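lol so apparently i was supposed to do this last week
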Amino acid sequence: MMIIKSDSDIRLMRKAGEIAGGALRAAGEAIRPGMSTKELDRVVESYIRSHGARPSFKGYGGFPASACISINNVVIHGIPSDQILLKEGDIVSVDVGAYIGGFHGDTANTFPVGKVSPEAMQLIEVTRASLMEAHKLLKNGVRLGDIGHCIESYVQQYGYSPVKDFVGHGIGRALHEDPNVPNFGRAGHGLRLPKGATVAIEPMINEGTDRVIVSNEDGWTVTTADGKLSAHYEHTFYIDETCGHILTLVD
Ligand code: MG
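anyway here it is w/ magnesium ion bound
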């Protein structure tokens, strides 16, 4: 069941969103070749805690860290490690959640590490742009099929594929609430989001096939089936009468 938020809920969600967004920005500023993904996770965790919040992901379903950090062909849910080092030319997706005042904020970006190939940069830019295209559709009554179709058709122009096995979600007092928000769909179909709905829209876009594999070893790490690159952008949005507001934007 979808949970509609009151104005006072939204004020609290803005706070959670700002902290998540700030932690993500801090991660982006800290990224450099040679850094371990565990070090990057510590940047995220210390930002969140120093702002009085707690990392939403730590312990969620047993996840052992504060951020999901996913390099190159890793789509999502990469586990930070001292053994995994960022290197020049990588692209790294960082997904961050913050919990404060009873609500969560959830946001992700894919960052280039140093200088990356034009192909990698295009994937990052198209993934971000697909989220911004979806943002333009948001308003009272927007249909999930329209959001999904918008993202899918946008990235398909570049030969890319949205991941189908993982999707965006409602968000609020729980990190994952109804409804599921797929990055694919049929225009004019699907549930309508009313004013007061809060959703995390998060295109996970693969350079090649949409097929993904979940690691048998750690049960978390999701990689592209063909080994090609993947990028991930996410914001938490509040649906208002005439538009959607990004709750996880900083600046
Ligand atoms: Mg999410």
